[in-house]
Design brief:
Elements: H1 2-17, E1 32-37, E2 43-48, E3 53-57, E4 64-69, E5 76-82, E6 85-90, E7 95-98, E8 118-119
Antiparallel strand pairs: 1-2, 2-3, 3-4, 5-6, 6-7, 7-8
Length: 125
């Protein structure tokens, strides 16, 4: 009986030593409020209090920031990836749509990511 108890304790100690963490992404300059994963799982978008949306590749051993979407004047509280578009919503009362981005399976993103995205005008005319 004593051996069984000792082995359980040993197993618990070994389990505490194991780590399941694969990567930590630390490029945002403030808290992260939202994340979205592309349908194919190749791109992760994160929105932050630093007023940016960052796009990360998830297909490599270490996730890398492959683009920073700028243009919001306040924190980003929602992001969505839909096909080749990235939508972001912010406390600045705007929704931005980045148009014509090619998110490829190899996680490369066109140079358009360095451009400021334009807000969508939802005003009724």
């Amino acid at each position: 009986m004593g051996g069984v108890i000792q082995s359980k304790v040993k197993v618990k100690a070994e389990a505490k030593q194991k780590t399941y963490l694969v990567d930590t992404l630390t490029d945002h300059e403030a808290g992260i409020n939202t994340m979205a994963l592309s349908d194919d799982g190749a791109i992760l978008a994160s929105g932050s209090d630093d007023h940016t949306v960052r796009l990360w590749t998830t297909t490599t051993d270490r996730c890398e920031c492959v683009g920073v979407l700028v243009g919001h004047d306040d924190y980003v509280n929602c992001v969505l990836i839909e096909e080749t578009y990235v939508f972001s919503a912010s406390a600045d009362k705007t929704i931005r749509k980045l148009n014509s981005i090619e998110i490829r399976r190899d996680a490369t993103v066109d140079a358009l990511l360095s451009l400021q995205s334009e807000p969508i005008d939802f005003s009724i005319r």
